[in-house]
Amino acid sequence: MTAGTCPVDARPPTLEDGEEIADAVRDRVVVAMSGGVDSSVTAGILAEEGYDAVGISMRLYSTPQDSYTKSCCSPDDLFDARAVADSLSIPFYVANYEDEFQKRVISYFIEEYRRGRTPNPCVACNDHLKFDILLKRSLALGAKYLATGHFARIDRSGDEPRLLRGVDRGKDQSYFLFGLPRQALGRIMFPLGGMTKEQVREIAHQMGLETADKPESQEICFVGGGDYKQFVADALAKREHTPGKIVTESGEILGEHDGIHNFTVGQRRGLGISYHKALYVKAIRPDDGTVVVGGNEVLMDRGLVAERCNWLSFDRPAGPLECSVKIRYAGEPVPALVTVGDDARTAFVEFEEPQRAVTPGQAAVFYRGEEVLGGGWIEESRK
Amino acid sequence: MVQRRLYLDWNATAPVLPQVRQAVVRAFEEAPGNASSIHREGQAARAIIERARRSVARAVGAPAQAVVFSGGATESNNQVLHHHVATTDEPFVICSAVEHPSVIEVVDKLDGQGVGTARWPVDEQGRLDLQWLDDQLAQGATLVSVMWANNEMGNIFDVAAIAEKVHQAGALLHVDGTQALGRIDVDFQAAGVDYLTLSFHKMGGPKGVGATIVREGLKVSALMAGGHQERGRRPGTENVPIIAGVDAAATELVKNLPDWQLALTKRKELFVDTLRSAVPQLELRGAPEHQLPNTVNVAFPGVDGEDLLLALDLEGISASSGSACTAGSLEPSHVILAMGFEEKRARESLRFSFGPTTPLDELGHGAQRIAELVGRLRRLEAEI
Fold first, then answer.
1. Considering only the top CATH level, what class is A300-382?
2. pLDDT number for residue A7
């Protein structure tokens, strides 16, 4: 099984003159290599197919010498990426994007929690790091394409490339990709989109890649040890903590807390109050630090407002859009009606069935079947 | 498909001279002994080391007994600095702000241990101010550490003038001569240097070997314990074949230095002239009137040095910029930051360094290709 068996994921055309393909070097493609198995296999496949593959690892933050975490970008991961590139005999570089990452991802992450929202740093990293500055650097290096190990596909059969979900539904990462600049789709390859994770591991073994059995990274990469609440608390100056009251929707005060960054909509654990029934965070008000809680039933919302929408399949929806919407990574798309105002960057979403725990700061991504139509950032829920 | 490459990073390391390769291989084959053994094999190995010692001494104008072989200039720099501090009452160590990390980081470490230290600043062209030195010497500096020529800018420092001042004040002078060797005259005694440290791989010698050269009447102690080798100043079984390579490198240097200098000067002129005529805007960095004839440090305003460096590598041209961290990404060089450039402008710096055998025509074509890439990156920058 190789990537070639999935028709939608066919490689972009390379050389005009078919007769010369056998001898010529194919187009240069930069592969974003994190040191994990997915991007290792991506590089392996493209190198094997005859592309002039160039590996680049992004150094996004410094890890102190003593920390030993198993998520991407630690020096160990960069060494792994280098070892894989070496075994594939492709050039390999490390690009230092610490400043940009700090500005675009870490600061955003902290600021969102400070505002009582729940950020999605992976989307921010894709939008601002991988598919912006790394894509630009790839073009600067004379590459025609940037390839990553995301589980998503690009359909190049029509006039314009379309972003599709990954075939492996357990791994589909299209949710994180809604914000890509539309014109970038033509410059991107996702060679793994037609495969399952098992197949990727199998290829890694066949190719004898060092990273074949490397475990998945699950936690947020720059939060060592996985305790993001502590990370945010440490990053916020004491005066920026927003303590406040924990109240029910009817205004009953149940307790107090020492900072809204400790809460996420839908959260049940760690509220620090006892009540006669299970309580969930319903809303977070950054102005006065109030955390509103209630029973499971109050979490149900009929819709949401999404801001800063990015449309991938068209400039703007022609009218009310019947599609499905996914409001968190670990969820399935559900049927909804999406309308946009004069400004197509704001979308109003009405679910067919009420949905639980619409979380400001997360992404709302719009799908039609396999296709990612676009998406936006959840601003607020609607009853 | 094998790409023909143009190697312009001789200040990182140089291709090994054919004579060096032959000497190393021959010694592997013909001198298997341990130089400390008394039998004939040992004697043969010993003879190679002593021959190399004389060659190095001749190459840098020092007496043979002054030469102590080491594992490289980094080791030698550590050795001199630690020895000085350990054997001096109230040591006060000065180093230039543009020294190699194997000096700066040792001085910083000594500072952390309570030793008096000071960093000799440079101006925007990377030049040292002799007036500053006078003040520090008056305040009791005991050792001044300055490189003969800077690795990043190619700036040559006036070692003889510095030595005079240092000695007048009763202090000692340590000079790291690694980048000067094989490119300009390095005369240990004439310049009045007290400690000269060297490695040989920037001029076509082997890597992993260096030398500490100590003025008569001064001592240098071993960094490690455990052997009598090098008269107790560098314990451990000598790497005889590699030292045979040093012999060959030093011999070639004595034979060829004037020719090498001519060849380098010619190459630098061609490279700089071609770049100047092909790139609309460029900024040559360092102090051109006192610069190694093999080093060009240049910035192309608006072009990130790392972008250009990677693009050049993919086009088959090897250059350098800044220094790689553990993970392999580039940080702006401490040299250019010490010269007062802010980070963005510091990141624009690229270093091209070549050798006497760099093919002239390829160097000219290389400069043309650099110009093309600069143009491409500037166009891209304008589009984004």
1. mainly beta
2. 45
Q: Within chain A, where are the H helices?
A: 37-48, 75-87, 98-101, 107-114, 121-125, 135-140, 197-207, 228-235
Q: Does domain B18-253 correspond to CATH entry 1.20.272.10?
A: no
Contact of B114 with chain A, judged by CB distance below 8 Å, is answered with: no
Cα–Cα dist A295/A348, whole Å: 26
To the nearest whole Å, the CA of B257 is away from the closest chain A CA by 36
| Exposure b/e, A15-34, CB count within 10 A at least 16 = b | eeeeeeeeeeebbbbbbbbb
Q: In a 3-state reduction of DSSP, which class is residue A341? A: coil
Minimal CA–CA distance to B268: which of B247, B298, B234?
A: B298
β-strands B349-353, B295-299: how paired?
A: antiparallel
The pair of structure tokens assigned to B139 is 């305040």
Q: Which CATH architecture has domain B6-15+257-383?
A: Alpha-Beta Complex (3.90)
Q: Do domains A241-294 and A300-382 have the same CATH topology?
A: no
Structure tokens at A199: 């197949």
Residue B249 CA from chain centroid, whole number: 15
Number of C-beta neighbours around residue B228 at 10 A: 11
CA distance A179 to A44: 27
Token readout for A213 is 């059995």
pLDDT along chain A (383 residues), means of 10: 44 48 68 96 96 94 53 72 96 91 94 93 94 93 95 94 95 96 94 96 96 84 80 82 89 90 88 85 91 88 96 95 96 96 94 94 97 97 88
Classified by CATH at the fold level, domain A25-225 comes out as Rossmann fold (3.40.50)
Q: For B137-174, give one letter per residue: b (16+ CB within 10 A) or e.
A: beeebbbbbbbbbbbbbbbbbebeebbeebeebebbbb
From CA B196, how far away is CA B174, in angstroms rounded?
A: 6
Got the DSSP string for B211-265? EEEE-TT-----SS-S--HHHHTS-S---HHHHHHHHHHHHHHHHHHHHHHHHHH
Which residues on A lie below 8 Å from B328 (Cβ)? 57, 78, 82, 93-94
Task: Considering only the beta carbons, identify the residue of B311, B327, B384 that sits closest to A59.
Answer: B327
Q: How many residues does chain A have?
A: 383
Beta bridge pairs of residue A155: A162
At B193 the pLDDT is: 98
Exposure of B352 in the CB half-sphere (CA atoms within 13 A): 26
Domain boundaries, chain B: 6-15+257-383, 18-253
**CB of B75 closer than 8 Å to CB of B220:** no
Do residues A201 and A212 make contact, with C-beta atoms less than 8 angstroms apart? Answer: yes
pLDDT digits (tens, 9 = 90+) for B88-123: 999 999 999 999 999 999 999 999 999 999 999 999
CA distance B254 to B256: 6
Give me the catalytic one of A72, A73, A125, A309.
Answer: A125
Superfamily for the A241-294 domain: Adenine nucleotide alpha hydrolases-like domains (2.30.30.280)
Show residues of chain A in contact with B380, CB under 8 Å: 136, 139-140
Predicted confidence at residue B331, as pLDDT, reads 77
Higher-confidence residue: B275 or A95?
B275
B329 touches A at CB < 8 Å: yes
Report the pLDDT value the prediction gives residue B332, as an integer from 0 to 100.
Answer: 82
Torsional sign, CA B132, B134, B138, B142: positive
Contacts of A194 (CB under 8 A, 6+ apart): A3, A5, A6, A8, A9, A153, A167
**CB atoms closer than 10 angstroms to residue A353:** 9
Active site residue A221: yes
**Tokens coding A260:** 């809204």
Domain map (residue ranges) of chain A: 25-225, 241-294, 300-382
| Centroid of chain to Cα B60 | 14
